[in-house]
Amino acid sequence: MLKNAWLWTALQRLTGLLTLSLLGGLITGYYGVCFALGFAGYALWMLRQTLRLHTWLEDPDQQEPPDAYGLWGSIFDRFYHLQRREQRVRGRMQAVIDRIQESTAALRDAVIMVDAEGTLDWWNVAAETLLGLRTPQDSGQPISNLLRDPRFKDYFDKRDYREPLEIPSPISLHTRLQIHITLYGAGDRLILVRDITRVHQLEQMRKDFVANVSHELRTPLTVITGYLETLLDNSAELNPRWRRALQQMQQQGGRMQNLLNDLLLLARLETTDYPADSKPVALDLLLLSIQQDAIALSGEQHHRISINIDSQLKLKGSEAELRSAFSNLVFNAVKYTPAEGNVQLRAWQDAEGTHISVSDSGIGIAPHHIPRLTERFYRVDASRSSATGGTGLGLAIVKHVLLRHKATLSITSVLDQGSTFTCHFPNPSNGQTTGTQASLESSH
Ligand code: ADP
């Protein structure tokens, strides 16, 4: 009954109006005019209530609804109730937003939201200090206009965000930034930027230390191995027991020299991003000369080292670096293939780019070792590796050289049957789409 009170009031009003119109008609005899006036009055009253409602809804500060009874009172109450509920929800959401904004403002890492077109939507305070974004001027600007480093543009457009990107900050060359991008929603991107200057400096110190130690050790080692050579040249005058010791010292000295050379080469490869002396390299001449070196390395073991190459094939890059990468692969093939085994060098070109492969009929590699082969000092079998005079750095050098040439490495191997190491160099035009990471794959 109470719930429908407004209906009761409305009916009472309508009945009152009809009675008054009827009375008016009885008194004046003009029923039609009285009823018309009655309904016109009712319509005017309704219009007034509608206007009150409109005025109240329009005014955001108006807290209490205007006084009214019956149907209009119920409408005002219902609106008021809805308005209060919406205010409470809005208040709660605002509190959540305020907390999120406070926490992101306190973050030391920059957080940036970018829409599917690559324009800036939102960022926190750290984005202003790390990247120099300006609030609110930069809102709606393409991010590529503000972060102009070509490496960032490549990374952003490639949409392969498994590995983070490291670049200097656009506002301070001494600050090193690490960038992570996450895709979400309809192609939107969340960019996280971290200041890794300190880690970078430590990493740099480690590289400098290794490079300096290697460099400093080279001279004393050259002197020692030089004297050992002279002593061994005059071995006829030596006690046979000493001769054997000296031979071993010379052998280990040679290994140390190889190790220092490889460490220095790696340090050099790490210090710059792209080869300085990039020019077209004739692959046939390069591989032929590596084949000659491999034949010399094989010596008495008489490996069959064949070469199969599309003539006139050229590859843009640093000849010295490419020579060192391919030599490492070919020498490994010789080292890890028993005497009289086969080693085949191939080079060919297709729509994807230029490929150079080194296959052998050697001992092969178990599949679980393959993903780790290019790590420094990673060896499948340490004793066998030291027997072959390996440094454990050969494939790390290959990986670095390929990274610098935007190429990838794939490895397929079957235990006791042989291995194939293939270098894939993208064509300059599709260089953007091919990964810069040395990727590894195995078949078994
Ligand atoms: P190392 O100087 O010890 O040869 P590398 O980095 O060149 O170091 O190679 C890493 C490891 O990968 C080697 O210890 C070896 O076990 C394995 N390896 C590399 N090439 C081959 C190959 N062609 N056949 C079998 N194993 C190989």
Structure characterization notes:
There is one protein chain. This protein has 444 residues and is an alpha+beta fold. It is 51% helix and 17% strand. It folds into four domains: 2-101, no CATH class; 107-195, PAS domain (Beta-Lactamase, 2-Layer Sandwich); 208-271; 279-443, Histidine kinase-like ATPase, C-terminal domain (Heat Shock Protein 90), CATH 3.30.565.10. A hairpin with a 5-residue loop joins strand 1 (110-114) and strand 2 (120-123). The termini are far apart. Residues 431-444 have low confidence and may be disordered. The structure holds adenosine-5'-diphosphate. Adenosine-5'-diphosphate binds at residues 328, 332-333, 336, 360, 362-363, 365, 373, 378-381, 385, 390-396, 419.
- Enumerate the spans where pLDDT stays under 50 for 5 or more consecutive residues: 431-444
CATH topology of the largest domain: Heat Shock Protein 90
Q: Approximately how much helix is present in the residues?
A: 40-55%
Order of helices and strands: HHHEEHHHEEEHHEHEEHEEHHEE
* CATH level 1 name of the largest domain: Alpha Beta
Calculate the terminal CA-CA distance, rounded to whole Å: 83 Å
Structural class: alpha+beta
Alpha plus pi helix count: 12
Outline, from the CA principal axes?
elongated
Percent of residues in β-strands: 15-25%
Number of domains: 4
Examine the secondary-structure arrangement and name the CATH architecture of the largest domain: 2-Layer Sandwich
Can you summarize this structure?
The chain has 444 residues and is an alpha+beta fold.
Task: Furnish the topology, listing elements before pairings.
Blueprint: H1 5-28, H2 31-58, H3 70-106, E1 110-114, E2 120-123, H4 125-131, H5 143-146, H6 150-158, E3 165-168, E4 176-184, E5 188-195, H7 197-233, H8 240-271, E6 279-282, H9 283-298, E7 304-309, E8 314-317, H10 319-335, E9 342-350, E10 353-360, H11 382-387, H12 394-404, E11 408-414, E12 418-426
Parallel strand pairs: 7-9
Antiparallel strand pairs: 1-2, 1-5, 3-4, 4-5, 6-8, 9-10, 10-12, 11-12
Helix pairs in contact: 1-2, 1-3, 7-8, 8-12, 9-10, 10-12
Bound molecules: adenosine-5'-diphosphate.
